[in-house]
Write a structure and sequence with these properties.
The complex is a heterodimer of chains A (392) and B (398). Chain A is 38% helix and 16% strand. With 392 residues, chain A is α/β, with parallel strands linked by helices. In chain A, strand 3 and strand 4 form a beta hairpin. Helix content of chain B is 38%, strand content 15%. Chain B contains 16 helices and twelve strands. Chain B has helices at 19-29, 58-62, 77-88, 97-102, 138-144, 165-188, 198-205, 207-214, 251-261, 269-278, 286-297, 302-311, 322-327, 329-334, 374-380, 385-393; strands spanning 10-14, 33-38, 68-71, 92-96, 118-123, 192-197, 235-237, 240-245, 315-318, 337-342, 345-350, 355-356. In chain B, strand 4 (92-96), helix 4 (97-102) and strand 5 form a beta-alpha-beta unit. Classes of the chains: A alpha/beta (392), B alpha/beta (398). Chains A and B meet through strand 3, helix 2, helix 6, helix 7 and strand 8 of A and helix 2, helix 5, helix 6, strand 6 and helix 7 of B. Strand 14 of chain A pairs antiparallel with strand 6 of chain B.
Chain lengths: 392, 398
């Protein structure tokens, strides 16, 4: 068994990132995901042609199309569209993230496909929604970070808001919400016997992610302040510099964590101050507290504090980089980052599994080249007919 | 009419703060009956500032719609027996292990016989490894996963993502894992444990970078360069900043774009060439071309400037703060927010982030008051009024 979704088949008509990320999740969970590309597609344009490349292929393709089989179909050719319909009759899920209306024009509307396969879960992901004044506009991470408010709530104190330079999170976030909704519809189908259509947009997905900060705005009517590494709703939750120059992130949310922190730092008077036993009390005096904690934390190296805070059960961490992460036992023993052995691009550290299932473990399938499985998929679904597709 | 795709499922949420609450909320969005178990003094998130005019915490109300609240003092053996009965009546248990460990609740001892429960355990760092018992936190996960290296600048103090990404992603991936396990249970009748951690989720979300760092053909790209670039505040116009993408602007559009921005006369040929080749937000030299753009942008408001870019084949958006985001016609059109009436009055909350054609989802329940549904839930478990009274007198209900 490849995972909890073993037996589920996905028709994956997605491109660049938001759609591919959602189906990559389904593949890791054990679904047979069939990612469709146009025959003759240039290798350099796969994965949106996002650099860097490995051996001439975008890391976008190599990362976001893990856990899938690859098939060529020319959906504008009647013959291949017919093959698509036959394949879709065997599928449980259809996902696309083309602009609103494009799937319909290709003959792949929900109405048409649910006629062919009433059990089909049909998920369509848009940028800004399928209707409304911005629905026709394209959406990619930098624009969504800007519009959705995500780039507006990070930044150094007293400065201007800044963009997260890992330009992928708006797609991955929305892709995750798509995966969640598809799973809900698959569960519902066990009760109803019927598939359904799911609509979501990057605007909905990325604002859902910001729920707690947006909640602050909805409560006060004001933009949450920029606080550098600190937080508006909890204190302390901040990076402090230690004696060796290493920054250490320290957080105390519960009273027990707060008491533990004060004890490790020898700040008994803070521990005994009743106005500091509550979160609002500590947030109210954030600046003063930060200074007190910083003064002590500067007196010993990060390693020392990590040992003491760990024993006291106080959340803390320093920055770990790629080279350290890929070998760290906390990462390797939980399979959080693993090198996936690909045929065309060597071992690629792209594989990662955020869930640990006790009974039906999720698994990684390294990315394949465009169209690689066309013949084998045709053989599986169409053995009784003589069918071939362009480019196969 | 169903409550949503998860109509008929019961979920017990045993945690405080953000991760378990987010997982519970989204299962509640899907139509599940979510019971949030709270200690006598309530979920710690109820104390997180700022507060609505009703006195409700903004953080709490933002992640607790579509659930009911049961108050139990889990230090009491009677309360633990009630919790065990509640879990036995449920399909799913979401456990924040940092919280149950701190409260010294032995959850394993409360689980029903047989193996039909889907049990999600949320930790800071994952079920295995040397840090499996170290509690997690938002800033800790953002630093351990090196997410803070995509903000701020070299040799400057770290800047966090203002969004609570680690805690929220942990909730999102928990919901996914739970749903996948529920699906499997339909086929073979058996439940299982699903472990999710803040650290693991952050590493997953940065997967693209791990591939970029593996063995790239070149290093001059926005993934590999992200570690050494300065803080990116977008492109300053008169009254705010914007993000812009110009990769699809044709040569004819380019001339018109520069003209309308007022840049045609302000830049020399060398500068124009630099702008044409390195002019987008993702370009290697974006921080060098930014001041050139800003000479033109200084003459326009952010909205005017965005309109000029979009007219000539670019794709530009204001870096919105929430006041700008929520008055925008598209945001209004999408109806992201609705008002609900909770125990303390009216509070605005966000709506579920998707639409389902056959099992529509909605905000069915406002964020609950502390212990608001205690009697109701205990009665559903078959406890008599007298029994509930006895539990209350014994202090088991906090």
């Amino acid at each position: 068994m490849r995972g909890p979704l073993d037996g589920i088949r996905v028709f994956d008509l997605t491109l660049i990132m938001v759609g591919p990320w959602s189906t990559m999740n389904l593949g890791a969970l054990g679904a047979d995901v069939i990612h469709i590309e146009r025959p003759g597609v240039e290798k350099g344009s796969l994965g949106g042609g996002i650099r860097p490349f490995i051996n001439g292929t975008s890391i976008g393709h190599i990362t976001w199309n893990m856990n899938k089989r690859q098939m060529f179909l020319d959906l504008k050719a009647e013959h291949d569209l017919d093959v698509a319909y036959k394949l879709l009759a065997t599928c449980d899920v259809f996902v696309d993230n083309m602009r609103p209306g494009v799937a319909d024009r290709l003959g792949l509307s929900y109405e048409k496909l649910s006629e062919i396969n009433p059990r089909l879960v049909y998920c369509t992901i848009s940028g800004w929604g399928t209707t409304g004044p911005m629905s026709e506009r394209t959406a990619a991470d930098p624009q969504v970070q800007a519009f959705s408010g995500f780039a507006g709530n990070s930044g150094a104190p007293g400065g201007e808001p800044e963009v997260y330079r890992h330009f992928t999170q708006m797609d991955a976030t929305t892709g995750n919400y798509a995966t969640m909704a598809i799973l809900m519809a698959l569960v519902a189908r066990e009760r109803s016997g019927k598939g359904q259509r799911i609509d979501l947009s990057m605007l909905q997905g990325t604002t859902a992610l910001q729920a707690t900060r947006i909640g602050e705005y909805l409560a006060t009517g004001e933009q949450p302040p920029l606080l550098g590494s600190a937080a508006s709703s909890v204190a302390p939750s901040e990076a402090f510099i230690t004696e060796d120059g290493t920054y250490l992130g320290v957080q105390a949310t519960t009273t027990k964590q707060w008491q533990g922190l004060c004890k490790v730092l020898g700040l008994d008077e803070l521990a005994q101050d009743p106005s500091l036993t509550t979160i609002p009390g500590r947030v109210e005096r954030r600046d003063e507290l930060s200074e007190r904690l910083q003064t002590v934390l500067r007196t010993k190296p990060a390693r020392w504090w990590q040992l003491q805070l760990g024993r006291a059960g106080v959340p803390n961490a320093r920055i770990m980089r790629f080279e350290e992460l890929i070998h760290h036992p906390q990462v390797t023993e939980n399979h959080y980052i693993e090198a996936a052995p690909t045929k065309a691009w060597g071992d690629v550290y792209a594989a990662s599994l955020p869930w640990t299932f006790s009974r039906t473990p999720a698994t990684i399938l390294p990315a394949a080249e465009a169209g690689e499985h066309t013949g084998e998929i045709l053989d599986e679904i169409l053995t009784h007919e003589s069918v071939s597709v362009a480019g196969s | 009419m169903s409550t949503g795709p998860l109509d008929g499922y019961r979920v017990v949420e045993l945690g405080q703060g953000i991760p378990a609450a987010v997982a519970g909320m989204h299962l509640g969005d899907g139509g599940a009956d979510v019971v949030k178990v709270e200690p006598a003094d309530g979920d710690v998130a109820r104390t997180m500032p700022p507060f609505h005019s009703t006195g409700d915490s903004a953080v709490f109300t933002s992640i607790n719609r579509n659930k009911r609240s049961l108050k139990l003092d889990l230090a009491s053996p009677e309360a633990r027996r009630v919790l065990a009965e509640l879990i036995a009546s449920a399909d799913v248990l979401i456990e924040d292990v940092d919280i149950t460990r701190e409260a010294e609740v032995d959850v394993e001892s409360l689980l029903p016989a047989g193996n039909t429960l889907v049990h999600c355990r949320i930790t800071g760092y994952g079920p295995n490894g040397p840090w499996s018992e170290l509690p997690g936190g938002e800033i800790a996960a953002q630093m351990a996963s090196e997410a803070v290296l995509s903000l701020g600048a070299l040799n400057e103090p770290p800047v966090r993502l203002g969004t609570d990404v680690a805690s929220t992603y942990a909730g999102i991936y928990s919901a996914q894992g739970i749903l996948a396990a529920l699906y499997r249970r339909h086929l073979d009748g058996a439940g299982q444990t699903v472990d999710v951690s803040l650290f693991g989720c952050m590493l997953m979300m940065r997967a693209t970078l791990w591939a970029a760092l593996t063995n790239p053909d070149d290093w001059s790209n926005f993934h590999n360069d992200s570690y050494v670039k300065p803080a990116d505040h977008g492109y300053r116009a008169k009254d705010g900043a914007l993000m812009l993408v110009v990769g699809r602007v044709s040569d004819e559009q380019w001339e018109a774009l520069l003209e309308e921005l007022g840049l045609a006369a302000l830049l020399n040929d060398e500068e124009k060439h630099l702008l044409r080749t390195q002019g987008g937000v993702n370009a290697r030299l974006a921080h060098v071309t930014k001041p050139l753009w800003e000479r033109g942008l200084a003459q326009h408001t952010a909205d005017e400037a965005a309109a000029i870019f979009n007219k000539h084949g670019g794709n530009a958006y204001r870096i919105n703060d929430y006041p700008h985001l929520f008055v925008h016609p598209q945001t209004q059109h999408m109806q992201l927010v609705q008002e609900v009436t909770g125990v303390n009055g009216v509070v605005p909350v966000m709506r579920p982030p998707w639409e389902f054609s056959e099992d529509p989802v909605s905000v069915r329940l406002p964020p609950p008051g502390l212990g608001q549904h205690t009697e109701q839930i205990l009665s559903e478990l078959g406890l008599s009024v007298e029994k509930v009274q006895a539990l209350r007198s014994a202090g088991a209900l906090g």
